[in-house]
Amino acid sequence: MSRVFNFSAGPAALPEQVLRQAQEEMLDWHGSGMSVMEMSHRGKEFMSIAAEAEADLRELMGIPTNYKVLFLQGGASSQFAMIPMNLIGRTGKADYFRTGSWSKKAIAEAKRYGAVNVTVNSEIDGHFSSVPAADSLRVSADAAYVHYTPNETIEGVEFPYVPATGDVPLVADMSSTILSRPVDVSRFGLIYAGAQKNIGPAGLTLVIVREDLIGTPLDGTPTMFNYATHADNESMYNTPPTYGWYLAGLVFKWLKGVGGLEGMAAINQRKADLLYNAIDGSDFYSNPVDLACRSWMNVPFTLADSALDGDFLKGAGDAGLKTLKGHRSVGGMRASIYNAMPEAGIQALVDFMGEFERTRG
């Protein structure tokens, strides 16, 4: 069997080391005689898996003790509703930054539950290619929270800074960037992320929430959409996504083995630099995002002649470089280079791009 380099935006590649360990433990986890998929979520075996995964995540991210870590289901899209359901009732209003496709969806959902003030809108002629300067941001004093998307997966636009929001809690959809570099969790009121990019398989969602923001849901909030339900029951009010939680724990161990988030950041910076340098050093390829706002994780690029897109994708696929087609809303190509993408994968892509330009450009 030959594994390919998978540039999918999600579900994305997992570290091979993690997959091999899961394979070895598939039928019998640590002498239990059971697969993790078969275990009771309340049994001592899985309880130990869950506790160790949370402890490793807290260590990796430096999560303060006054934050709850929730292992949920429903993806980041469910959080678009859960966040206003749980937080907006404090004042009835919230500020949102509109910087790409995912923040647009978050805004549309939040409007169902309160007054949404879009204080940033970086869309120009139907496209997103930048974020505003940090000193230009304005926060409403009566906002219950400020929501932003640090990295827009589809457009490849990333905030190069953490917005300063004063006493107003900052909420971040970190689905595309979590665990890719160190982050000061104390600057946020709530961080959420779908697992299927840098954490583990699809089906698990992480929420890291400051304790004082739990407990004031809107009237009528369903039990399962109330953060207090999950915080009070250690994410086990109902059966959690146990196998996803287990695999996330293996990923956390893997990250600790590569030097933690500091070590991962150095690797990711090298990967991004290698690919962007190849794009910028060519007249055949281009990237539409402002230099200061380029994503480390999602790199869109276009060919000088879009008529060659199909040939490029076929040739790349034949070379073992898969899922490079750009999102249908923006076209072109997109290389998602999350934590599990090895540097060898970036080098293989760059080599193919150079050869394709030489023969078809």
Structure in words:
- The protein has 361 residues and is of the alpha/beta class.
- The protein has two domains: 17-257, 3-Layer(aba) Sandwich (Aspartate Aminotransferase, domain 2), CATH 3.40.640.10; 259-360, Alpha-Beta Complex (Aspartate Aminotransferase, domain 1), CATH 3.90.1150.
- The protein has nine helices and 16 strands.
- It has helices spanning 16-24, 44-61, 75-87, 101-110, 227-232, 242-257, 260-280, 309-318, 343-360; strands at residues 5-6, 67-72, 93-98, 115-121, 123-124, 127-128, 146-148, 151-152, 157-158, 170-173, 190-194, 205-210, 285-286, 298-303, 321-322, 333-336.
- The strands form five sheets. The protein has a seven-stranded mixed β-sheet. It has a three-stranded antiparallel β-sheet with strand order 13-14-16, covered by helices on one side. Strands 1-15 form a two-stranded parallel sheet.
- α7 runs parallel beside α9 (343-360).
- It is globular and about 60 Å long.
- The protein starts with a strand and ends with a helix.
SSE map:
Layout: E1 5-6, H1 16-24, H2 44-61, E2 67-72, H3 75-87, E3 93-98, H4 101-110, E4 115-121, E5 123-124, E6 127-128, E7 146-148, E8 151-152, E9 157-158, E10 170-173, E11 190-194, E12 205-210, H5 227-232, H6 242-257, H7 260-280, E13 285-286, E14 298-303, H8 309-318, E15 321-322, E16 333-336, H9 343-360
Parallel strand pairs: 1-15, 3-4, 3-7, 7-10, 10-11
Antiparallel strand pairs: 2-12, 5-6, 8-9, 11-12, 13-14, 14-16
- What is the gyration radius calculated from CA atoms? 21 Å
- Measured by DSSP, the beta-strand proportion falls in 15-25%
Largest sheet: 7 strands, mixed
Q: Give the total of domains.
A: 2
Shape: globular
Percent helix, as a range, is 25-40%
Query: What is the assigned CATH homologous superfamily of the largest domain?
Result: Type I PLP-dependent aspartate aminotransferase-like (Major domain)
CATH topology of the largest domain: Aspartate Aminotransferase, domain 2
Q: How many runs of DSSP E, i.e. beta strands?
A: 16
CATH class label of the largest domain: Alpha Beta
Distance between the termini: 33 Å
Number of helices: 9
Strand order in space, largest sheet: 2-12-11-10-7-3-4
